[in-house]
Amino acid sequence: MAAIDPGTLMWARACELIDRAERLHRQFFQPRAVPVRDLCWEPPVDVIETDSDFLISVALPGVDSNAVKVTVENGTVMVTGFRRTNTLPRSSRIHRLEIPYGRFERRITFPASSLELAQAEFADGCLMLKFTKQPFTEEQINV
After folding, report:
1. Strands (E), the chain
2. Could you give the C-alpha distances from 11 to 5, 23, 96, 137, in angstroms and in order?
3. Cβ neighbours of residue 109 under 8 Å, at least 6 residues apart?
4. Which of 115, 117, 124, 143 stands 20 to 30 A from 20 (CA)?
5. Distance CA 16, CA 12 (A)
6. Strand partners of residue 105
C-alpha cells in the first residue's frame, strides 16, 4: 500500500474548496445582460403558471419587508431591495460568509401577456406574488 503524501492531500482539499466557492459565486452572483447601478445579488425564485395566474415566490430570509420594492413594467416584474449585514462583535473572527448581503435585484420577464398584481404577501422569509393574466385589448393586438 502506497503512502499518502500530506501535501497532495492538502492540495486536493484546497482545490475542492475553490470549486465549492466558485459554485456558490455562480449561484448568487450571475452575470447580467442589463447593467445595474451597483453590485447586487439575485435571490432565488420559483415561478409557476396556471391558466389564469403567474405565482412568484422570492426567497428573502433576513430581509425586512419594508426594504423590498416590486415594480411591473412591459411584462417584466422587478423585485429590488437590501439585506443588511449582521453586526459583528468587535473581537469576533469570521470563519465563513455564504449569505449574500447588500443590494439585490431580480428581473422576471414573462411571455407576451398583460399582468396585474393581485396579491402580495411577505411571510416566513418569502415574498409571494400573484399576478393575474389580463386579456389583450384590440389595441394591444394591433400594435
Report:
1. 45-49, 53-59, 68-73, 76-83, 102-109, 114-123, 126-134
2. 10, 19, 20, 63
3. 75, 76, 77
4. 124
5. 6
6. 80
Helix, strand, coil in percent for the chain, rounding step 5:
20, 40, 40
Of 51, 45, 13, the closest CA to residue 28 belongs to 45
pLDDT by residue for the chain (143 residues), tens only, comes to: 567 777 777 888 888 888 888 777 766 665 555 554 566 899 999 999 998 899 999 999 999 999 999 998 888 899 999 998 888 888 888 888 888 889 999 999 887 667 888 999 999 999 999 999 876 555 444 44
- By three-state DSSP, how is residue 29 classified? coil
Taking the domains of the chain in order of start, what are their residue ranges?
39-88+100-135
| CATH T-level assignment (fold) for domain 39-88+100-135 | Immunoglobulin-like (2.60.40)
Helix (H, G, I), strand (E, B) or coil at 125: coil
Query: Whose grid coordinates read 389583450?
Result: 136
